[in-house]
Amino acid sequence: MSDYWSSKTIFAGWATKTDFNSIIDATVKTEKFRYNQLSKEEAETSFKKEQIEGLNNTLMTYKKQLESMDTVDEFLVKKVTSSKSEIATATVKAGAEEGVHTLDVKELASAATVTSNDLDEVAYTAADTTMTFDYDGKTYSVDVKSGMTTKELAKAISLASDNKVKASVVDLGYDSKFKLQMRGMDLGAGHDITLSPELQAVLEGQQDPAVALPAGTPAVTAVASKNARFVVDGIELQRDSNSISDVTEGVTYNLNAIEDGVVIKIDTDYDAIVSNVETFVELTNQLRTGFDLVKNYENEDLDEKGVNYSLKSNSQIKAVENTLKNILTTQGDGFIQGSGAGDDLYATLGTLGVKTIARTDDKNFGKLEFDKDAAVNTGGTQTFMDLLKADPEAVANVFAAAGQGGSSDDSTLEFNSSMYALGLTSAGTYAIEYDGGTLPATGDNNTITMKVNGVDQEVGYDATTQVATIKEGDAKGISFKVVDTSTGTHSATIAIKEGKVKETINTLNEITAAGTGTFNVMIKGYTDQIDHPIYGLKKKMADELARVEALEKQLIAKYAKTEKTLSQYQNIQSMLEFQLKSQLSDK
């Protein structure tokens, strides 16, 4: 019998010596042809599903890795040092200019505080009452109970103000004495605490209003909140925080202590930027290797079984691979390469020396290559490092621009903002044309029409500020000031830039989307092909096995019956032969 049915023992042919088992085996084997074909198909589909799942996971990992460098602030690394880090430090964004800033810290921003005198464990012993305090212009009521401990009083103060003022207790470590401190949660001048006379008396140590405090008991007074006072590059300033980000563009100063003479130095971290480029190239090449492995995968076991598992010619894989490759060879959306005032110095990775290996005899054919010290153009002398040092932001934009906007002519249209970050404005270039003579002269909520890339579109317009906002289409959410309102036709181009890292991530979001992504659709198709309860391969295989099993049982019964019949005839024949021999011997 076949391996599948080897657990079934059939007693056939014991009398007639006919090999019915071989006959049944041969029949079952023939009938299992359809099952074997389905089994191969199931192995093929399962293998392809696993490969596509792996490739989809690789794409999601690649996307996650790229997200660490998908903004100019992350890509264009600036480094900052402080001559006195214990006094002040700083953090910088990509927009910070290289240079040196001097900083004198005159006073730190502080919160309002009140510190009690030394208190006993029980802070109040008189009848239950309500005491109040003011904070930031609002009055809060504290329910003070007879026998309330200092710790309970602190908790009641915090709860009364919903933790806008937090009270804590310090155990002084002797004679069961404690100090209670109230602290406002807001830094900067004007956020002050004022105590009612009753609460002040308790904090001074008066447990019962009927019992006067000893003469000479120190008065408890509130310490007012203060602004930070500091001098940056010779300009004296105040802020309500010790973290100041609105003084020097792209720089946040963090004040730690009071002292003069802090020197903050800002430099572009060229090594870190090069590392970002090299990481991008390495990650991209790892992904391309992943595609190659899937397309060229070989499995000896499946080969021996005759399973056609190859994905080398799969059109969806090729389409995804080519889409991702094309992104890195084309000009970035919103970039205009040229020498005009609104043009970009660089618009493609190739102009920065990040290129695809086109030499067919190279083992890395089709991968990216990058050398920071190699000439970016054949026969040229400029290297990536030369370009980076000449204009770091222009280089970073090609990789990591994420909605940066600009106008080709600020004297006509001055770019204001877009809704790129919200997904409403698409990256690209938008030629905007209008007639200044038709612009409304009054009203802050006008709807007008302007041509955007040659198509009439609705635009909101505020005549007071001259700010226009496009309401529809790919340019939806772009806001700009109409500078030239004179009669006549005017035009300018608004560009919303998207670097190659961001473009790749956005494309990967579509490719790996849970319900509609290319590979997830494939995975669902493979899953249905295998597991669908009506037409899935597993159901078909189970049906085939059931059919073959039923056939085998029928054959066993049939040949058992045949054996029985033949055995009966054989017995009759033997009896007749015996009788015949007996008769002949009698004669």
Automatic annotation (TrEMBL):
Complex formation: Homopentamer.
InterPro entries, A to Z: FliD (IPR040026), FliD_C (IPR010809), FliD_N (IPR003481)
Annotated function: Required for morphogenesis and for the elongation of the flagellar filament by facilitating polymerization of the flagellin monomers at the tip of growing filament. Forms a capping structure, which prevents flagellin subunits (transported through the central channel of the flagellum) from leaking out without polymerization at the distal end.
Family according to the record: Belongs to the FliD family.
Keyword Kinase: no
Domain Flagellar hook-associated protein 2 N-terminal: from-to ranges: 17-111
Keywords noted in UniProt: Bacterial flagellum, Cell projection, Cilium, Coiled coil, Flagellum, Secreted
Compartment(s): Secreted; Bacterial flagellum
Organism: Halodesulfovibrio aestuarii
Repeat found in the keyword field: no
Name listed for the protein in its UniProt record: Flagellar hook-associated protein 2
Flagellar hook-associated protein 2 C-terminal domain segment(s): 226-571
